[in-house]
Amino acid sequence: MPQLILKGTFFSAGILLNAWILISVAVSRLYCPLALTISSLLLVCLVWCIGVLVTIIWNAVDGASFHNRSASMAIFGNLALILLLGGNVNLAMERYFAVKSGDSCVAKRVAKAVLFLVLIAFGASCVAILLVSPSLDGLTPRDEHIYHVWIALLIAFYASCVSATLFLYAATYRVIQRMLRNVMSGDWHEPEFPTLPPQRPFSQDSFMPTSPRTMAATALERATRAVRESEEALARHREKQKRTHQAETATFWRCVVMSGGIVALYLPFVVELALKPWLSARVELVWVQVGSVLAGLDTIWTPLVVLYSWKEVQEICFWWERKEVVRKF
């Protein structure tokens, strides 16, 4: 019972948090590819939260009929898991192409088409497996041989999504780092001190001889001005270098947070499913509870990461500032 209360609490929190961000984005009319990608991912989180919460309440009210709906629950859970993992890859892909603006839109469309086909293939495979071998626990197929096929597909899909997400965020960080350093370069150079002009016997204006003392004073004034301008340029260079380092650090930690969540929250769950045939009943029960709770936390982790990473989303959620963003294709 405490486990059901805990799950019900954070899935309820997930419903409120995801709905809050989705409503804020809709009200503010934040229409752009990145916002639409975020909204689709949060919508999957919202639907998963609602489905799990309804299941928890239904089981608490009528637990005897659990086996009658376990097959449909397994299909729903598998599809939600596939969409969440695929949505994280789509988000990383959208962020990569958003910062790498020099790339053609064709590459982006091809990558998204490939991702869509992969999601369709894995989703159809899981549904077919669960129809052939209906689930008894609300998640996995009941036949042992089919279970091994199912877990192999799940591990392959999870590993592919994690690898793609880590690669895309690493590539995004490298692109941003290169852009920042390109902006910073060329702002400061070594000062070029003026040399003493050759002594001329007469001035061009008055045809009077130019004093060597006057020429030296003029050269000294120019050198002093060059030194002062060089010091100011060096100070600007150091300040921009400091800001660049801060921006690179912030970008790096955003990428770490966004890619680390998908690894930390789902890895125990996938490992438990892979080792299930060799675990004792007691260890399996504990691991299942821990893994399911961590996987469910993704419905809260994802919107929190969205709030942390995108300033526009923070503004419209916390201050309801209306923004019009032109959608670019």
Short descriptors:
329 residues, 0% strand, mainly alpha
Compute the number of helices: 9
- Biggest beta sheet summary: none
What's the rounded overall pLDDT mean? 77
Portion of residues within helices: over 70%
* Contiguous runs where pLDDT drops below 50 for at least 5 residues: 187-197, 199-208, 321-329
What proportion strand? under 5%
Report the count of strand segments: 0
Q: From the helix content, strand content and strand pairing, which structural class follows?
A: mainly alpha
> In angstroms, what is the radius of gyration?
30 Å
Measured between the Cα atoms of the first and last residue, the distance is 50 Å
Shape: elongated
Instruction: Give the SSE order as H and E letters.
Output: HHHHHHHHH
Description:
The model is unreliable at 187-197, 199-208 and 321-329 (pLDDT under 50). The protein is built from nine helices and no strands. It is elongated and about 110 Å long. It has 329 residues and is an all-alpha fold. The chain starts with a helix and ends in an 11-residue tail after the last helix.
